[in-house]
Specification:
- The protein has 378 residues and is α+β, with helices and mostly antiparallel strands.
- The chain has 2 domains: 194 residues, PurM-like, N-terminal domain (60s Ribosomal Protein L30, Chain: A); 179 residues, PurM-like C-terminal domain (Phosphoribosyl-aminoimidazole Synthetase, Chain A, domain 2, Alpha-Beta Complex), CATH 3.90.650.10.
- The chain is built from 12 helices and 13 strands.
- The strands form 3 sheets. A 6-stranded mixed β-sheet has the order 9-11-8-12-10-13.
- Helix 5 links the parallel strand 5 and strand 6.
- Helix 1 packs parallel to helix 5 and helix 4 runs parallel beside helix 5.
- The longest helix has 18 residues.
- The N and C termini lie far apart (55 Å).
- The relative contact order is 0.15.
Length: 378
């Protein structure tokens, strides 16, 4: 069942109401566990969420089977055209963080995580986000819960400058149990070929800037859930080690920080010079595992250990789970959600711009000659 495409209407592919057995005793879709009526109610609930992500690039599609989006556009409508546009795409999910949302019965922010996990990856390539699609699978369609999820997705798209162009909702009893939900997202962006990031441009002397995370983000939740279970932690409790103001559940459900808008704005401020030579979204694999992907084989990123603040949630989880330092660094972002490698002359100005755009920026270290590794010093 599609739940949206085009710029208005968002019709479902299947419409009508639950079917009842005919006089011949035949089975119905409803008896198989699929409610078409619930799907229709869900589609109606999400119209405003979808529409508020749309700008003039979105073209109305009357059929609703697929979304239309302008790429090569009229200069009178848009600020600029691309000379050599290259499409950039990615797909990702939120992993087992959805289990936490289910346990807390709070679904209005997990959609932000879904957008962030995709679009934060997208902008690493230097791309501008264009549009987003989502896939929601469940054992039993609950229109209110799924509408909350889509609202969060729309919130993330608005903040990132992407249109929520469409999606699919699959109600699959037998594949998913009661209350089970799974999420996947798909993002498409565009970058001018000459401005696409390339690890070969990273040079010794470049500065590594780290942008603070909002917490655990959306990686490592299988370990988080295991720690909560094995240590008998209470998701509804306000622990003093975590400041005593928010519940553990609220802290763990804090959505992934969105970096796209800030990165795109900074990139646009340098229309000629390529001052950012590399970027990395810090997800599974941690800081070292992801930053190394922005390097070529002739350089190392040398970072100052302890140069950035580590959110209290990480030592809290480590202590209650007895997790080693190495495992923590390998699984979690440990307080740095995104990295920019910047030419040294421009590092202060880039850091200042990112700070003004609401991000906590730390100078983590520099690039030195090496063999493509991330090294800690101090």
């Amino acid at each position: 069942m599609t739940h949206g495409s085009g710029s208005a209407g968002y019709p479902a592919c299947m419409s009508g109401t639950d079917q009842k057995p005919g006089t011949g005793g035949g089975l119905s879709y409803a008896q198989a566990g699929v409610s078409i009526e619930a799907g229709d109610r869900f589609v109606e609930k999400i119209q405003s969420s979808l529409r508020r992500t749309h700008g003039p690039r979105v073209i109305h599609s009357a059929s609703g089977f697929a979304g239309l989006f302008r790429l090569d556009f009229n200069e009178k409508l848009f600020k600029r055209n691309y000379r050599e546009p290259v499409l950039v795409s990615c797909a990702d999910g939120v992993g087992t963080k959805i289990k936490l949302a289910t346990a807390l019965n709070k679904y209005d922010t997990i959609g932000i995580d879904l957008v962030a996990m995709n679009i934060n990856d997208l902008v690493v390539a230097g791309a501008e986000p264009l549009f987003f699609l989502d896939y929601i699978a469940t054992g039993e369609l609950d229109p209110a819960k799924l509408a909350d999820i889509v609202k969060g997705i729309a919130d993330g798209c608005v903040e990132s400058g992407a249109a929520l162009l469409g999606g699919e909702t699959a109600e699959m009893p037998g594949v998913y149990g009661p209350g089970d939900i799974d999420l996947a997202g798909f993002a498409v962006g565009v970058v001018e070929l000459a401005r696409a990031t390339d690890p070969e441009r990273v040079e010794p002397g470049d500065v590594v800037l780290g942008l603070g995370s909002s917490g655990v983000h959306s990686n490592g939740y299988s370990l988080v859930n295991k720690i909560v279970e094995s240590a008998s932690l209470d998701l509804g409790m306000k622990y003093e080690e975590l400041g005593g103001e928010r519940t553990l559940g609220a802290i763990l459900l804090e959505p992934t920080r969105l970096y796209a808008d800030a990165i795109v704005r900074v990139q646009r401020g340098y229309k000629v010079k390529k001052v950012i030579t590399g970027m990395a979204h810090i997800t599974g694999g941690g800081l070292a595992g992801n930053l190394s992907r922005a390097l070529h084989s002739g350089v190392d990123a040398v970072l100052d250990a302890g140069s950035w603040p580590v959110p209290p949630v990480f030592p809290f989880l480590q202590g209650h789970g007895g997790v080693s330092d190495e495992e923590m660094a390998r699984v979690f972002n440990m307080g740095i959600g995104y990295c920019c490698i910047v030419r040294p002359t421009f590092a202060p100005s880039v850091a200042k711009k990112l700070d003004k755009l609401g991000h906590t920026v730390t100078r983590l270290g520099e690039i030195e000659s090496g063999d493509g590794k991330v090294r800690l010093r101090g």
